Amino acid sequence: MNACIECQQPVIENQEGLLCEECDRWQHRECDSGVTRAEYLRGVENGYIEWSCRQCSENDQPMPDEIDVFAADLGQFVEPEVHQEVEMENPYPQPNPVAGNDDEGDEIQYVVEEGRGKVAVIRRKIKATALERPFDSAAEIVDTIMRDDIGVGQIALHPTLPKPSSLARQANLRRKLSRPRHPSNLQFELQNQHIAPGDEIRRQSRHAVIATQRLNGYWDEYVRGARTARSLLLASSRVISRNARNTIRLNGGRIPREGLLEVYHDGEWGTVCKKQFSTVTAASICRQLGYPGVYQMLSKQKQARRGMRTNVPEKVWLGELSCDLTDETIDDCSHDVWGETDCKHSYDVGLSCFRACLEGEFGCLIFIFNVIIIISFVLADRTSFHEFRYHDSNDIRIFFQNLTTAYPNITKMYSIGQSVDGRQLYALEISNNVGVHEILEPEFKYIANMHGDEVTGRELILKLAEYLCNEYHAGNATIRYLFDHTRIHLLPSLNPDGFEKAFQFYKEFDMVIDAYGRENLHSVDLNRNFPRLNTIMYRNEIIGGKNHHLGYGKDTTNYVPEPEVQAYIEWVEEYPFVLSANMHDGDLVANYPFDDVRSFNGRPSYTMSPDDSLFRHLARTYSQSHATMSTRTRACSIYSRTFEDGITNGASWYTVKGGLQDYDYLHTNCFDITLELDCIKFSSESGLEKEWVDNKDALIQYMYQIHMGVKGIIASTDDMPIKGAVVHVGGPGINHDVTSTKDGEYWRLLLPGTYTITVSAEGYFSKGFVVEVVENSVTPLNFVLSRREVP
User: Fold this and answer.
1) What percent of the chain has pLDDT over 70?
2) Is there a catalytic annotation at residue 676?
3) 500, 519, 676, 691: which is the annotated catalytic residue?
């Protein structure tokens, strides 16, 4: 901290301090500064106080006529003999302009004007010239004045005159103070004095286009740190066009992207009532202001704590306001009659929007240097909505809404159902033909957060959604292949109620106690609430019964699932999922079926599924693509252990009855594994970015495994698709069949090898083929079945 010139005590932030414009040193106002408190307060209001310390003021008094003063190098003081002309090295070399001296070279002769030093005059002249010529470099202005004006005008220099860089910095400071302040209400409008001569301003509904050939301006001082500073525009503000009949702003907040929502109508600002104000409307308002979306709707208490309840407009203009994400201005929104509402100011809307984007992100300033500046809210190559923090249910909804608005052709947001507390179970579909199941295009899903306190997968899914869309838009060939050949579904939370409970605890204590929020609001563990089909499967293995699509009819008599589980069951029966993974925390391992043991004693033991080799391959694909899952040498805790290759059979680790992954395998055509992603449940938000880096490649590689084995169409001889046809794999035999969809499609994941594929359907003759399955490829194999003659 700077020390006071007089008392040598620190001048801290909340004290009345003065900065000497001559020597750049600080002094307390009360330490014999000569500035009254009223003058000081007026200076604070104006943003600038022109003041010099006592020493500099004394040095600026008229000097004896018999002494000539000159500057040798702006840092030395020399007293030559009386009336002696002195030659010196010119610190700014140019031909000497002094009359009577025609010598060339780097020498210049400074002649003293009698009676006065001109330090303050020089400073003021530099600052005034900087204001008069806002598009010239301050350094060039200082250079010009020091060369021309001092030499030609015969102005005597005082030895305390700062260096040229300091003078240029002070000139830029004066420019800054003379410009419009950074608008906390986002209402900065370009004026002629902020645009270089010859440049052209074009206005459109939501953006301004400024064509310019002179581009080194305000941007450099506040963002890039370039050498020059020109008064061009406020680069960090959002330009609000006046073309719209009514205008909006956020006012009174601590930062530009938050504040009280105010609407300009009939020459007066007024507020908006929040009684009928939805979060979709809030997101739309933030987007109209140039931000990606809404971060938070602020309560009255939060508004007061952030200083928004002062200087509230007299009017409440709108009692009801409803906007869609496609609305570009408030005039496009629906609302009630202006001013006809009985809503009180205690219900005023306060918003906090997502941060202003960086260059190259959605909704950001785009600068094409030296040619044109475009300030526009456009879609760049990559969009950034995701922040590495925990997102509650409302955040997920807004995130998905923003993403689907940015990429409407490849994303679709939907809900698979509701939780016990009525929260929506939001999912996102990603495909090159969104909303449509294309024939023979397999469907993939990631599920997370079925235990409310296990949250890593929840955030990874959000980041994965953004990453896939960005990379597809940017032309990433790997991602484009997935889009073109796969329909992807992402479900970030199957237990939002449990998450909200754990999240509230986390926000208060920065940690969550073990199992707090794990269950749903009925205190049920969702990963123990699925139909227990393993017992049926193990019995059928003995008696030769059915080995697929168990869990219908009498298999699940008297079974009543939780709302979240019921929504999931209906979801997987609606879509023809082929491959899946569900994400948990508590260890670092890929876990594959079966989870429930065959033994009657219930003790953990390796329990193979018919597709054990395939499941081991799937689990190993994820673990070996993960940064540390397959290579770590230390267990997560003294109660855990390490796993070879980072994979484990579920039942050999511990027994789970009524689990999701066994249900998917035995009830549907989908193959599912469980991913344990973090040793710590509900770990700190600071580690989320590293989790994404560790898991990104594994998430992509695992999705690619859906394109292996065989697939095809099963139809009759009259080209009608056959639903429910059974596809059996033999040679070597695999005691797990899959069935065809209503469109006659089937997919069977298989490792490379030679297989006999047999298809049977009720009322048709069976048919079989021998097929070679190759690595990293899916083999097409169609079947045409002939009808049996009915006697």
Assistant:
1) 72
2) yes
3) 676
